[in-house]
Amino acid sequence: MPRTPIVAGNWKMNTTADSAIELARALREALAEADDASGGIEKVVCPPFVFLGAVAKACEGSPVKVGAQNMHWEEKGAFTGEVSAAMLAGLAEYVIIGHSERRQYFCETDETVSKKLRAAVAAGLKPIVCVGETGAQRQAGETKAVLRRQVRGAFEGQPAVPPETTVVAYEPVWAIGTGVAATPSDAQEAIAFIRGELADIVGAEAASQVRILYGGSVTPDNIADFVAQPDVDGGLVGGASLVAASFVEMVRKVAAIGR
Ligand code: PEP
Fold first, then answer.
1. Is 176 in the pocket of ligand 1 (CB under 6 A)?
2. Which of 105, 163, 247, 253 gives 224 a disulfide partner, CB atoms 3.0 to 4.6 angstroms apart?
3. Ligand 1 in contact with 67 (CB < 6 A)?
4. Residue ID of nearest Cα to ligand 1 atom 8
């Protein structure tokens, strides 16, 4: 079965109440046209928590799906400032887990990523699990060891992770927000490696159904080169997803590949 490509926008801590709705409406309008060629591509936007409800409403009935950028693994309780998977469930279809900025600035570990993955799946959310090496780790030749540790840390011991609704994003930390993307062949190599690790954990058939995205300075100019690679199933995009025209262009470029 071919894997449906995804273009997912991570808005991070950007937009305002007004600009978030404006961006969502612009995407909805551009991507909902009857003759739009991007029908076979999944389009996901991940606004800040506080705008999830408004963006979900703005996207209702459109092909634009909504994701959250984070979640807590507990269902409820004394966790000030946190948001549970159950709270997200009516608002978001996807949830980003273990983004490198969460690992770097908010002490996320492979253990918390694993707990979040378990809770997300149990709540019916579709996870986008982020993995990727830092520049220092890459220079030290540790890329594969880091990816192995992060993939195994997230997926080993999970009771049931439905492969067709599970997404992994390979995001080399040195490429995020820097304007220096990985080469398509490096992304392919890393993503094929991740798929191999997943195959060891969940079996080859299930691993072949998991969508694995590349993220890190993806733009309308380079996304097609990534998605043309056999194992790269789309992009997780930060900066370039904040401009409606560029998000739409990325979707169309991926659609044009015809996977
Ligand atoms: C990201 O937010 O995950 C990301 C890859 O950012 P950017 O596209 O801006 O590098």
1. yes
2. 253
3. no
4. 238
pLDDT tens string 71-104: 999 999 999 999 999 999 999 999 999 999 999 9
User: Average pLDDT of the chain?
Assistant: 96
| Tens of pLDDT, residues 139-195 | 999 999 999 999 999 999 998 899 999 999 999 999 999 999 999 999 999 999 999
Q: Which atom of ligand 1 is nearest to the CA of 96?
A: 3
Whose CA is closest to atom 5 on ligand 1? 216
Q: What are the distances in angstroms from CA 246 to CA 56, 96, 116, 148, 237?
A: 20, 21, 31, 33, 11
Ligand 1 atom nearest to 218, measured from its CA = 8
